[in-house]
Amino acid sequence: MALGLMLLLVFTGGFPRGLFTALVLGAVAAGVVVPKVMGRPLIGWAGLWLRYLVRGARDQLTFVRREDTDDGETPTEPSSPVLSPGETSTARDEAGRIKPGSGSRFRLPGEANELRVYTLPGGAGFVYDPRRGEGIVCAKINTSKAFALESFDAQEDRTANWREAISAIARMPGVARVQHADQTTLISGSKVMEFYNAKGAEATGEGRPSGEAVNPFLHAAFVELMAEAQDMPVHETWMTVVLSRDKVAKRIKSLGGGLSGFMNLALSVMTTIEGTLPASGTTVQAWHSPRSLAALVRSAFDPRASVVISERSGDWVGVAPGSAGPMAMEVFTDHVRTDGYLHRTYKVSEFPQSQARLGFLEPLIFAGDFRHTVSVVWVPRDARGALNHIQRRKADWRTTTRLLDKLDRPHTLEHDRELEDIDREETELVDGHARLDLAVLITVTGADEMELEANCSDVLARAVNANCELRVAYLEQDSALLAAALPFGMVDL
After folding, report:
1. Are the beta carbons of 307 and 231 closer than 8 angstroms?
2. Nearest-angstrom CA–CA distance, 467 and 425
3. How many DSSP H helices and E strands does the chain contain?
């Protein structure tokens, strides 16, 4: 816009007044567009501030839950979720098509309030976003072996298999985003004791010693510790796959069309994912049900509730979807307050410049025994467009090389390394790997400002060990919280 106005001033104002005015305008525009503050141009910050002020004037920076009518939604009585014993099935019509029902709304702040969750055959939850036209499924995943205890060669093999698995998932028709998150959460000591007893009974049934038979002193100490423990930190890991309805419209139509066809497509994607991950030492433990998804959402806004939720059993495992959202939410420039807790979300703005070691994000994931979530989001891009982009980068590199040679200037190491990066990326695309855009978001939680600052300091210190740079998502904390801490993959790259 500035360049267009400058040309207009030169032609209409003449010389020297028009030229002088155009130069002044160009200097002002360059001062706004060229300088960057925390990686973002000043004009970008101006747009964010304007949007933030407009939202504040419209009272969109606060959210208060109102107990209104359910709009004919399904009742909130418990249903046996996937992550607990019991069988759950969704009705089908005579032709075998899924009958979705009316679904349930999560009642979340902002645009996320439109999300509705349905139950797939088998009990898994299917979240539908009518605003974006996307379907969402979420898996609880775990690793079968300890990655850090294996040899370097075994770690490389598992990393290569994981890379191939993510690439295969990203190439599946309709996949719009893939989110992999690790959340440090709290569960009750009784829940840990229940797991300990279950493993002991399993070992006894197989004729192996366990518990008191192995070491009575350690067994007694552990039982006493769990009896006194109010909460224990554990890591909750999930993988969310977001499917775009528009990208697979024809396939959905062939499966019956509408929401029913979309849910049938999701079932086939889930089956493929279950067979893709095991080679990397990662398995799908279960697909989250509507109630277990709601439990993840509820504990993200109110970490205190995670201890109470973990003590529920039977049909009452999890949370009713209608009760998943926060009671209140207030948005500030650098943090969000929900249900008595403060949350601050960071984005990894700089990754290691040198070759990173395997598991370089580990310091961020194990930053401490406080509530924090590390989410990695992949967005697949068109392979042909990616190859064209690489060819343009290579042409620019060759042009720069010719100019440097003509000017008899030496090549910099950065310039030479750029060609290596281009060739490596092209080789991976030619070999069949998907082009993925990557974002890493980290949400840190504290009970008050002092605790939040202390937890954030720990995370920032660990980021130095990971050779990463973190930046606060200023003026976008509510959107960043929904993207990082919730299992819905709500990220725009």
Report:
1. yes
2. 22
3. 15, 16
